[in-house]
Fold this sequence. Notes:
It is built from eleven helices and 28 strands. By secondary structure, it is of the alpha/beta class. The protein has two domains: 4-9 and 359-521, Immunoglobulin-like (Sandwich); 15-353, TIM Barrel. Helix 3 (127-145) runs parallel beside helix 5, helix 8 runs parallel beside helix 9 and helix 10 crosses helix 11. The radius of gyration is 26 Å and the shape is globular. It starts with a strand and ends in a 15-residue tail after the last strand.
Amino acid sequence: MSRTIVPTEAAGTLSDAWRTCVGTGRFGLALRKDYQDSLALVQREIGFRYIRGHGLLHDDVAIHRPYDAGGHRGTAYVFTYVDQVIDAYLGLGIKPFLELGFMPGGLASGDRTVFWWLGNVTPPRDHAEWASLVRALLRHLIDRYGLDEVRTWPVEVWNEPNLPQFWAGDQAAYFRLYETSVHAVKDVDASLQVGGPAISPGADDWWEPFAEFVTERDLPADFLSMHAYSSGPAQHVPFGVYQTFRRPQHLLDQFAKPRKILAGTALADRPLHVTEFNTSYRPDNPVHDTAYNAAYLALVLAEGGEHADSFSYWTFSDVFEEVGVPASFFHGGFGMLAHRQVRKPTFHLYAFMARMGSEILARGVDHLVTRHPATGQVTVLAWQPVGGTDDAAEPDRHELQLSVPVLSAGELVETGPGVSTGSTSGATSTGSRVFVMRHDVDETAGNAWAAWREMGRPASPSGRQLDALHEASEPARRARSLPIDGGGRVDLDLTIGRHGITLVTLDVVRDETPSWLDDTRILGRG
């Protein structure tokens, strides 16, 4: 195997599109303690900027409240739950990415619903009343949180209107809803950001008609939004599904496609937000709980920012009920966290990405190497390439050999033939070694789902079992030091486990060992 030589000079800046936004279960679920505890953990260890989900206008949030009592008739707008949820979000350092949907029962033109929680997907029976609802919501948010703040919150019109499951009207009916909505948003403040059409994978034939419609009608489209998944048809079993997958590159190709289609149109330069993406589009596919899911998505996180301004993992937590209350602790939920804040391998992928530097030194099919400009720390994210349906073809391990620069030319001073170290100042010196900290997640390490399977798949784990799952979810960690060669480089040899992801941090050792210490005199060290 040949060793990959990582360049010393940065090749570019690592985009933060991967953590601009994260998905969530319906808006009202944010009132639950397990939800808020999970989001707090995600924000501490990863730190997303925005959160987006369905159900802001659903009846369980109860914003739209028609009344007819005591000779009084009208509509009240009630923001009790909206305030509690958004207060919680902002308190955790995350902003809402507002999705307008689904239809309140008192405004719906029909009774067609989606999901276990019965989100109404019919057009409004009165578009003027829909506009009044949108204006009332935004005016309340501005009154409570301030115009400058709310101007930073994107407003997305509906969810996957190309699918009959999510929109009972046709394309023309969605365009009418979009027009009504964007006028209502801009009536409140012209600087509020509004966009769409939030289409599902495979709806490429919507882009040109959408561009033509907004151009002909001179409508705002401050951003474009879409969704991306890579799985095939669902193979159903009780409380779950299995699916085949295309390769990870298929997700990146989906991210890139809208700009190719819209090149030359008035929308060619608009920001593109992938407001949902994952491997499987099902919330009951066990692949989401596995190390395979993390290894599959590593390439997507490493390269996705080259194609989209954001791509939002669907979702941060298994507090999620689209197909009903989960029947088992691990159930194939979308979340990067299981219930009770048990970390899944995909959570670790994101936590590893959060520790990467801003300068890209190298990027390949199985690695991303970055540097922190302030500290000089070099970070390596490596993974076993996976993808496609022939899982049996993947080996039990993956080998990667890198030559990594850890000292710049200015830090090297010659101290003898063939020997280079950093400069020395007093008792502290930049030594000729680098401290290497390694974190591994694979089929056996950092894998709570694998431990749960060995437990016998308890549907509702006891407290003792939950403790064990939390312990099993921790990555394997190893520390060592390696020599720096005369060119300021370190040879890094990585053996990555099956479906593994690995984070390696490299820091030049500044040795502060007193001269009188002798470790060979410690019992057991001689």
